[in-house]
Request: fold
Amino acid sequence: MIRIDLQIDLTYEIDGAGADFVFNIHAAQTPNQRVSTENLTLNQPISPRMYTAPGTGNRYLQLHAAPGALSLGYSAQIDLMHHLADPVKIAEVPVCDMPPEVIGYIYPSRYCQSDLLIKLANNEFGKLTQGYSRVQAIQDWVKRHVTFALNSSNTNTSAIDTLIQRVGVCRDFAHLMIALCRALNIPARFATGTDYGADPTLGPPDFQAYVEVYLGYRWYIFDPSGTGIPMGFVRFGTGRDAADVSIATVFGAVRTHAAVIRAVAVENSANGMVLPYFCDEALSTDSSTMPAASEFTQSSEQPLLW
Amino acid sequence: MIRIDLQIDLTYEIDGAGADFVFNIHAAQTPNQRVSTENLTLNQPISPRMYTAPGTGNRYLQLHAAPGALSLGYSAQIDLMHHLADPVKIAEVPVCDMPPEVIGYIYPSRYCQSDLLIKLANNEFGKLTQGYSRVQAIQDWVKRHVTFALNSSNTNTSAIDTLIQRVGVCRDFAHLMIALCRALNIPARFATGTDYGADPTLGPPDFQAYVEVYLGYRWYIFDPSGTGIPMGFVRFGTGRDAADVSIATVFGAVRTHAAVIRAVAVENSANGMVLPYFCDEALSTDSSTMPAASEFTQSSEQPLLW
Amino acid sequence: MIRIDLQIDLTYEIDGAGADFVFNIHAAQTPNQRVSTENLTLNQPISPRMYTAPGTGNRYLQLHAAPGALSLGYSAQIDLMHHLADPVKIAEVPVCDMPPEVIGYIYPSRYCQSDLLIKLANNEFGKLTQGYSRVQAIQDWVKRHVTFALNSSNTNTSAIDTLIQRVGVCRDFAHLMIALCRALNIPARFATGTDYGADPTLGPPDFQAYVEVYLGYRWYIFDPSGTGIPMGFVRFGTGRDAADVSIATVFGAVRTHAAVIRAVAVENSANGMVLPYFCDEALSTDSSTMPAASEFTQSSEQPLLW
Amino acid sequence: MIRIDLQIDLTYEIDGAGADFVFNIHAAQTPNQRVSTENLTLNQPISPRMYTAPGTGNRYLQLHAAPGALSLGYSAQIDLMHHLADPVKIAEVPVCDMPPEVIGYIYPSRYCQSDLLIKLANNEFGKLTQGYSRVQAIQDWVKRHVTFALNSSNTNTSAIDTLIQRVGVCRDFAHLMIALCRALNIPARFATGTDYGADPTLGPPDFQAYVEVYLGYRWYIFDPSGTGIPMGFVRFGTGRDAADVSIATVFGAVRTHAAVIRAVAVENSANGMVLPYFCDEALSTDSSTMPAASEFTQSSEQPLLW
Reply:
């Protein structure tokens, strides 16, 4: 088990008549990612709303802030019980066996224009053996073809742009890898959270964008920018791409200060808490969604009427 | 009340090893669009799956078809109880009052790149009085700047493409209008269904793509391509854009024959059934989602802890 | 007559192993733009090359600079004898009457993708009366739809980008206007030189990008960004777009300091030198290229053999 | 020596009020490509104009045709004296040694957006040994990443599009190869002419688009689509890209029939005429443009005044 003590501090200066914010900075609560304690502080006497999206479990914090400084602090203790699996045994899921709520993740989205990359993806990866190793090949291809450079892209940058420009940050690596997976009908989604173990020369601890791919009836973690140790990532949200799970969406005239993030792993051999490490196994913080044999199917003997 | 007798016939030739399909051709079941009788027939002894998406109520039919001909027939009787409202009284909803499940519809999507159109939308519509009339101005702008022409676009065509090329089909008019609304933080979604009352010179009865905009806490119908009588539209699905609610998504080597669609309105003055007509009122088949005063808010006197 | 005293100072810091430069900062020598005195100074003992392009008369300075500082000073006295004409009398030139060397300026180029704007240009301007006034309508449209903002674009920005983003600098206004003219088969070219009379709040005196349009068998000046007094512009080069007539193309690792530019008009009523002023007449620094009746044509009685 | 007997027949139906045409179908006259006999026939009593562009030697035929059928026949006998060279001995030319009229061919153009591909080209080819073999590596990369398919692109398709879509015709292979060369500061230009020796399954004899790259002070032929035997190509024109050297540019409402092309090589061992064959040597139909030592340079002892 991995335990992370998380502390996030966000600061803004709000001009004019106030501003609206939608944050997605709460650790997701899943069977494998338990949020034991959690605290949110705001320097303004605001009445925020919390909303948990039904499909993804993403937790959104929505608030209207008055002019002046806005400080937001979020702290939590998160326990991660990773599912580890032998990559060799993880197969791709045929379209006809995909749960319906997963199928949306093979469709193109704003920053992952998979519909434009079908030939490219099939040329590069179409003849590879299907399964986890093919997705690893896609991840390696993205790592090999894109250079990591801070401030080399912006919020409009899409997978197509990154494919041409060959440079980006973690968000761009994720978008390109997702687009290539979807072009092969492999469901892939964008995940956000906090980084762990990144090279300090890349900057102070930061938010992290990475990828989850649906293989073997489960969402597995991939980190195409390769900047951290995935076992230490705390997940905030998952979505089609960055448009769905922006850390902070701001409406109004606002100056943003750099986020201050602290993610510390707690080691305690007595109760099995270890530090995150690079592992060769496939990694997931999701439950299996393998359908029971009886589920979702109707015999054609029954009248086809709904 | 409007009653539509609907009949849809789809035919495919499947080569090779069979093919997977996801259809979204079932009429949506909403408080204002009641599906009284419904029948689905398939010429192959297939066990399909039905899936109703939790957020949107879209109904998806997923099946694996064997090689050879696939014929699918869907018939239904649909009763539409439209909400009509005086456009002058319909206001835009401030971001801080938007229900959380609506906020996603101001974000950009694959074919509606609103993030690239913020200056354009503000230049063109930023100074107009907010409300239903501003959305009408957007719709009129799209109608004025884009020419309708069959086969002038393809499934990759996006709002940005249409903005430049100035030509398209109903799908393209919808994408551009949606992108412009979202660029102004007005929630807008893509709707699909069947057309009604279109000029026969534009071709035989067809599927229809149109727009729903969230105004006055309700989704109102707009038809930017102006090809039909919106009061007669039967709605299948709503989504971010065409990627979410494709009529048919096909996986495999398949030849597609033209769909045959029949949508007939039933007139019966005895029980108040009238024929669809062009009306000046704002039109909706959705319920109000105005939040109760107590909902979604927490007093800041309470500790800010989740 | 307008007399401009021009002084340009460029400074660079060259790292590593030296760098190559191609400059286009010499005032063009044309019948209507006479360069009476001219001086170039370089702080490095370099042997540069001068090249005058046959088609355009653009003068390029090509040099290889050693590591360290490179300073380049160019001063010249330029006399401008403008051709002024009544806009009402200036017609568009039919394609069949265009001189062959002009026809290339109706083709698309890197930053002026006129081939993508044919429908848009015809929708907006296709029904206007042909002639100088139609080109003025295009210029006004660009001014009305694009906002001037320093640092809002970069060297990759094209007419299509500006059309969507609705913001730019003089280079972007010029590219969009050129693309729209070409989409209507009106030859248009990109001109560079020095600004005159610009609002000091837009920054210190600078280089200027503007447009020349071929009308009435002559290239007329247009200034779609509207930042200066065109009668005071000194022309360096003309080309398809910014790719052809970059002020300075740099090969190597170089830091660039801001250019220092001084363009002063000399007034002398004794010999007819006036200060540049805004005029209602159409303005050109080019000779007429109206072909003589006999030119370019071969009687079809002659055998069609070359 | 290669001798080609060439016959081209073009047919059009002109609607309405007549149409203007600019053709570039005359074989270029160069020291190494001699046009011995040449004949042009037109079915309409038209007075066309011929224009030879000063920089490139391209010959343009400009005419205005009346409504009805337009038939144009061009026949010529062309002798090709190829310059063959050992690829190992052909170096890239440093920017500072490039003739000024060549430098324009490292700038981006409409369909060859090299300015967007600088990182990609340097990642893929930046570490290879400079020279002919590096350009061959670029050609091989394009061949490997793009699939040839008729009707897979259109006249708006650019190098960036082909890079993403991975499919195209000879024009698209050429544009992508040119863009990659220019991104490395290697001059490259678009060449048009007639194909020779293409696989008949790819269709009847056709026009051909290919590439010339400036290496070792000479333009060498490359055929990235690999559809023919380059030694048999007859060159019409060279330019920045397809915008410069369209086979036929048409202004007006015109229906175009398929061109009929016949290019037959004449064998005559008595006077050294052989049939075109695939050769390992580098191939050029251009003269060397190596500058004499004294040319283009001015001693810096001389006053730097022009």
Observations:
- Confidence is low (pLDDT under 50) at residues 293-306 of chain D.
